[in-house]
Amino acid sequence: AQSVTQLGSHVSVSEGALVLLRCNYSSSVPPYLFWYVQYPNQGLQLLLKYTTGATLVKGINGFEAEFKKSETSFHLTKPSAHMSDAAEYFCAVSGGGATNKLIFGTGTLLAVQP
Amino acid sequence: NAGVTQTPKFQVLKTGQSMTLQCAQDMNHEYMSWYRQDPGMGLRLIHYSVGAGITDQGEVPNGYNVSRSTTEDFPLRLLSAAPSQTSVYFCASSSQNGSPLHFGNGTRLTVT
């Protein structure tokens, strides 16, 4: 079984500051990990994904995440926040097998202050 | 490409009414799934399908039925709506296991 924990339901940063959104996962099999972003009244959009290979993955809009197996973590970072980054961010895990069931975390709402 | 199309965008039902949320994708994806999104709870998987004729239950299947007669369509049926089913519903599809999900824009359902 898989599960995801996102620490901090609300995160606020100043424009230009580092963004760090935390995600820890639990999986009985090698995980596939994803970060999605949701803007108000829209569906979810993929930011980045980790399946195998390089543990530091780069995504869209300057975001990146590092898979750390020893810490069971997949934290999302961006060096410099922009006002347009204000949105809700979801971490998700897929445990492989014959299906593609994503298990989502409860989300982190990112606010960017001018 | 239209991607994943959900209809309707908004719906209000009375308790006990039935309805079908429609989902269609034009990407020839084998995998399709339905999620509901509630404040503070993230997205929870209702039902999913790995191909036409094959469906299975997710985390919160009670009160919902699905069928998959074609690759393109994956409707979600509420047989007798309850206020607890007030939520935003998202349909998603992907090409294969581990591939990213493509989401529709959601259906906002209110049950009074």
Question: Can you give a write-up of this model?
Answer:
The complex is a heterodimer of chains A (114) and B (112). With 114 residues, chain A is mainly beta. Chain A contains no helices and 11 strands. Chain A has strands spanning 3-7, 10-14, 19-26, 32-38, 44-50, 56-58, 64-68, 73-78, 87-94, 102-104, 108-113. Chain A is globular. Chain B has 112 residues and is mainly β. Chain B contains no helices and 11 strands. In chain B, the strands form 2 sheets. In chain B, strands 2, 4, 5, 6, 9, 10 and 11 form a 7-stranded mixed beta sheet that branches. At the A-B interface, strand 5 and strand 10 of A face strand 4, strand 5 and strand 9 of B.
Features:
heterodimer, A: 114 residues, mainly beta, 6-stranded mixed beta sheet, 5-stranded antiparallel beta sheet, 0% helix, globular, B: 112 residues, 11 strands
Structural class of chain B: mainly beta
Q: What are the low-pLDDT stretches of chain B, counting only 5+ consecutive residues below 50?
A: none
Helix content, binned percent of chain B: under 10%
Quantity of strands of chain A, as a count: 11
Please report the number of helical segments of chain B.
0
Number of strands of chain B: 11
Q: Give the low-confidence spans of chain A.
A: none
Proportion of β residues of chain A? Answer: over 45%
